[in-house]
Amino acid sequence: MLLSGVATAQIPPELLEKYQNLSPEQRQQVLQQAGQASTAGPETIRQGDVVTQPVTVTPLQPPASDRGKERTDAGEGLANEQASGKLKPFGYDLFAGLPTTFAPATDIPIPKEYVLGPGDVIEAQLFGKQNTKYSLTVQRDGSIQFPELGPIQVAGLPFEDMQRLLQQQISNRLIGVQAAITLGPLRSIRVFVLGNARNPGSYTVSSLSTITNALFASGGVAETGSLRRIQLKRQGQLISTLDLYDLLMRGDTSADERLQPGDVIFIPPLGVTVGVSGEVRRPAIYELSTGIASAMDLVSMA
């Protein structure tokens, strides 16, 4: 039975199939109720009623004999699903909520490979024949002025090498004195987030920041940008490429490199995408890393 007129618009699309299973008497009652609701004017809306947008008339389902046929135009079907809001790009909601602060972290362990630079503060606790504590700031020339020892170059050294150097200098030149070396407040560095970022520009971040920290500071990746080919460049050279799908799907942060002053994070344009819908856990629009993927790869992502 074909539905037409105002009454059709009053029946939600998800109820049309149930309507077709009703008896003729029940169908007539539904149509009469829908017709009465359509003739109600604005004055019949009571306080507290929920006012919704008119239901859009959707095409009727094909006959049962045609429901099993495949679509001849898969591209048109995908475009219709995107337009209806059923499929959304995967991964961009990672940046939906922005942090309230980008204050440098000061209470996390210092990695051994951390490279010192001007502005870092070295805390030296001497004990033995002499019990003294010093807070030494790395100067612009890369040195610290250590009392009784003079200037010592430390800029460019990894944290572990700096510890070993200062402990050797103290034990050799201050007889009977040992030292515990750590880091105090860390310096800030300036990096650039360019390309298809939500807010491209120059950002000041903690010297312990990684690529993802800078991405969050810039508001994240725009939907015109690639989540799978984020590039870290240093002095014009490509250092690494970050695939955020590794983080989102497997929790892998091995490619999330630590930043250095002057680094550039470049977000290239979005690559080839494929929409996956139907009986999958994560129906969405996925970006392909190489432009080619098997059906098993797509099902695995979804």
Write the layout of secondary structure elements.
Blueprint: H1 6-10, H2 13-20, H3 24-39, H4 74-83, E1 121-128, E2 132-137, E3 143-146, E4 150-153, H5 159-173, E5 177-183, E6 188-195, E7 201-206, H6 211-217, E8 230-234, E9 237-242, H7 244-250, E10 264-267, E11 273-276, E12 284-287, H8 295-301
Parallel strand pairs: 6-10
Antiparallel strand pairs: 1-2, 1-5, 3-4, 6-7, 8-9, 8-10, 11-12
Tags for this model:
alpha+beta, 5-stranded mixed beta sheet
Textual characterization of the structure:
The chain has eight helices and twelve strands. It has 302 residues and is of the alpha+beta class. A five-stranded mixed beta sheet has the order 7-6-10-8-9, with helices on one face. A three-stranded antiparallel beta sheet has the order 2-1-5, covered by helices on one side.
Task: Provide a concise account of the structure shown.
This protein has 302 residues and is α+β, with helices and mostly antiparallel strands.
Structural class: alpha+beta
The rounded distance between the terminal residues' Cα atoms is 38 Å
Largest sheet: 5 strands, mixed
What is the string of helix and strand elements? HHHHEEEEHEEEHEEHEEEH
Shape: elongated
Strand content: 15-25%
Number of DSSP helical runs? 8
| Helical percentage | 10-25%
